[in-house]
Write a structure and sequence with these properties.
The protein is mostly helical. The protein is built from 12 helices and no strands. It has helices spanning 4-9, 20-23, 28-38, 46-52, 73-87, 90-98, 114-121, 124-132, 147-153, 157-168, 172-175, 189-205. α5 (73-87) runs parallel beside α7 (114-121) and α5 (73-87) packs parallel to α12 (189-205). The protein is elongated and about 55 Å long. The structure holds iron/sulfur cluster.
Length: 211
Amino acid sequence: MQTAKQEHIMSCSHASSCELYSLMAMEPALNLWKNHFCDGGHEKCARFQLSLSGKMVPLTLLPNGKQLAPRSKAEINASALFNAIQKQRVPMIRSMLKTNINPKSAVTSDGTTPTMAAAAIGNVEILKLLLDKGCNPFSKNKSGETALDIAVRGSHAECETILRNAMSSSSPDEYGQQDVSLPAVGNDEEEDQLTRENVIGFLRKLNPFKN
Ligand code: SF4
């Protein structure tokens, strides 16, 4: 008879390369897909079945066979950034912030900002990079938590100190209304396409299942 641990090992064999998880980094819906398909019934997954048939699996195919709704460039950029934060890829985050990804416009559907994501994992270096880029430490997620609340809850003392300092040396008004729907780059179509390809390249490199 299998133990719970052995059953867990029996989760989807494609987990180490499945690109869906990069595209939906830190989105709450990701856990639902994971529980329902990857850890609990990968045989039913449309992505799994298509890849067994030898066909190319579209990035946007969901486990239930539907297509992920078209995503804006800002959403794709945000996923790439959240993915890099989750993986604690500091040099990659630094290069993303130098190029075309605006951390101030990145937010998940539950209101998590990059600053909150960095506070949740307790990564001081990433947190400082984001604050230096002007990310708002006063932002709240849909549960009403700030990055400071998240750092305290996770017992990340150093992040807590950095956030307290950032909040005491500024005021919410200084950050204004950061528009999370703004695209991170210009409107030129060719540039947009190039950016999208670059970001998808980032996503592929950053699969959260890979070590
Ligand atoms: S989404 Fe499907 S193919 Fe990807 S890891 Fe989960 S079960 Fe496997």
